[in-house]
UniProtKB/TrEMBL annotation:
Name of this protein: NADH-quinone oxidoreductase subunit N
Segments passing through the bilayer: 6-26, 38-58, 85-105, 117-133, 139-159, 171-192, 224-248, 260-284, 290-310, 349-369, 390-414, 426-446, 508-529
Function in brief: NDH-1 shuttles electrons from NADH, via FMN and iron-sulfur (Fe-S) centers, to quinones in the respiratory chain. The immediate electron acceptor for the enzyme in this species is believed to be a menaquinone. Couples the redox reaction to proton translocation (for every two electrons transferred, four hydrogen ions are translocated across the cytoplasmic membrane), and thus conserves the redox energy in a proton gradient.
Upper classification of the organism: Bacteria, Bacillati, Actinomycetota, Actinomycetes, Streptosporangiales
Source organism superkingdom: Bacteria
Keywords: Cell membrane, Membrane, NAD, Quinone, Translocase, Transmembrane, Transmembrane helix, Transport
Family, similarity comment: Belongs to the complex I subunit 2 family.
GO biological process: ATP synthesis coupled electron transport
Keyword Membrane: yes
Subunit structure: NDH-1 is composed of 14 different subunits. Subunits NuoA, H, J, K, L, M, N constitute the membrane sector of the complex.
Gene: nuoN
Length: 534
């Protein structure tokens, strides 16, 4: 059987994959060019986003790699389907990718030997997998796409040579991912063995269709099916850093370069949730009475653990890591109740979370640590409002959104959507847990916000001199997106900021501008995303 390929359906993934090869060729023949790979990568992500927009404008479902009907199935089954869910996840991933590329341009100007060509090649491979995964409609494509998201991330985390923290982060990420993949593959193999199919729609038919109802064919053992569902959920729980599979998050986020931490917190997480939603709502929709309580408990434990551990953090990156774990709990919450729009509520929260979380990472990238040892502390942000008012106000807005406080209405709307879905689904206890966790989260977000407007202390944090040494420089103001964001970053104490940090300030400022514009848009007009997922 020869299958035809609909290139219009696979265009976004194909653009990214072909550009990944092009970047390697450019690096091989033009090794001294640093700006060209970044420009080509940014253009490819933008072109892929345009392709997604054209697919959405067409207003029809696209499918390819299909097998024809047979005597048991009246309809064809396709491995790659571009529908409403696919377009939303692809748009979130690619918009986040634009920000990651800008943060990467800043990272590559900092001290440390990072090969430019390999960096953008691995980044494009991850993006190709993240765009392919929401369109995957069979178990094989789903697993391959998920691994294409994960495997390059190991190398990206360790790509900064002679960096012990980066190597440690990559090793932890690798070990956790290997275990999660093994667990998930065990569950996937059980699903295939029980149903005799890898296509999600035919798995659902076998489990809940006429054959299951009439007893035609061998019966599906309920106990084995339950084990398969639990293993699949556990495998994806590793990917989204849900408790009790969360222990890698803080160390990996802190040890990896900041753009990689941002990628893991948004793009990798979005891919994991896309796969989980597809399996639960497509292949296992008929078993929702079994898996919704499991997901509800997972959600409650995840948001509680993430918030409690975030309370103790002094490093802003580790704080964002545990905050990301807590946010995973909020995204899981709608899937823990049986409602018609549970997947839509989870997707809406994910899209809004992506904008505000990337914005916080972008400001952290824009505001350098006081020395060249890359040690960050929340107290280093004291008085930022006087040294860099635009950066301070932007960060305060992102933190308010993450907390769900005005004027961060985007985060408030996201929490209301999830809360309403939980209540409508009869999950009163889960709604109470979410409300309590929202209050807990206020503390560490507000504590960081307050430091932005507190005058710089006369006594410096331990280990840093009271006055900057001779030659210490301040990052000059940089204007991005037509003056939307102007960042004056604090003067440093300790070693002088390198010229590379000065050169990299502008891409990070543009990244702040993009995320700020998106977050304000979601705050002013939340229907932009709510109507899309509704």
């Amino acid at each position: 059987m020869i299958q035809s390929i609909d290139y219009a359906a696979v265009a976004p993934s194909l653009i990214l994959a072909l550009t990944a090869g092009l970047v390697l060729l450019l690096d091989a023949f033009l090794p001294r060019t640093r700006a060209l790979p970044a420009t080509v990568t940014f253009a490819a992500v933008l072109a892929s986003l345009v392709a997604v927009a054209l697919q959405a404008a067409a207003g029809r479902t696209l499918s390819t790699f299909c097998v024809p009907p047979d005597r048991r199935h009246a309809a064809p089954a396709c491995s790659y389907v571009v529908d409403h869910l696919t377009l939303i996840f692809a748009a979130v991933v690619l918009t986040a990718a634009l920000v990651i590329v800008l943060l990467s341009a800043t990272q590559l100007t900092l001290p440390g030997a990072i090969p430019v060509g390999e960096w953008y090649f691995l980044l494009l491979c991850t993006l190709a997998g993240a765009v392919t995964l929401p369109a995957s409609r069979d178990l094989i494509t789903l697993v391959v796409a998920l691994e294409l998201v994960s495997l390059p991330a190991f190398a990206l985390a360790a790509l900064k040579r002679y960096d012990a923290k980066g190597s440690e982060a990559a090793l932890k990420l690798f070990l956790v991912s290997v275990v999660s993949t093994a667990v998930m593959l065990f569950g996937v193999s059980l699903l295939y063995g029980l149903t005799g199919s890898v296509h999600l729609v035919r798995i659902a038919e076998r489990l809940t269709g006429p054959q299951a109802a009439t007893g035609e064919g061998p019966a599906v053992p309920v106990g084995v099916l339950a084990v398969a569902v639990v293993l699949v959920i556990a495998g994806f729980a590793f990917k989204v850093a849900a408790v009790p599979f969360h222990f890698w998050a803080a160390d990996v986020y802190r040890g990896a370069p900041l753009p990689v931490a941002a990628l893991l917190s948004v793009i990798s997480k979005a891919a994991g949730f896309a796969g989980l939603i597809l399996l639960l709502t497509t292949a296992l929709a008929g078993q929702s009475a079994f898996w919704t309580p499991v997901v509800a408990v997972l959600s409650a434990v995840t948001m509680t653990t993430g918030n409690l551990l975030a309370l103790r953090q002094r490093d802003p990156v580790r704080l964002l890591a545990w905050s990301s774990v807590a946010q995973s709990g909020y995204i899981l919450a709608p899937l823990g109740v049986q409602t018609q729009n549970a997947a839509g509520a989870a997707t809406a929260y994910l899209a809004i979370y992506a904008a505000m979380n990337l914005g916080a990472f972008a400001v952290v990238m824009l505001v350098p640590p006081p020395g060249l040892d890359d040690r960050r502390d929340l107290d280093h942000y004291r008085g930022l409002a006087s040294r860099g008012p635009a950066a301070a106000l932007s960060l305060a807005f992102f933190l308010a959104c993450l907390a769900g406080l005005p004027p961060g209405l985007a985060g408030l709307f996201a929490k209301i959507v999830v809360f309403r879905e939980i209540v409508d689904g009869g999950g009163a206890w889960l709604a109470v847990v979410m409300a309590v966790n929202t209050v807990i989260g206020l503390y560490y977000y507000l504590a960081w916000m307050a430091r932005l407007f507190i005058p710089t202390p006369t006594t410096p944090p331990p280990g840093h001199p009271a006055t900057p040494p001779a030659g210490a420089a301040a990052v000059p103001s940089s204007e991005a997106a037509g003056g939307a964001v102007t960042s004056a970053v604090t003067g440093t104490s300790g070693a002088a900021i390198t010229a590379g940090r000065l050169a990299g300030a502008r891409p990070a400022a543009i990244a702040v501008a993009i995320t700020l514009a998106l977050t304000i848009a979601f705050s002013v007009a939340p229907q932009l995303i709510l109507s899309a997922v509704g």
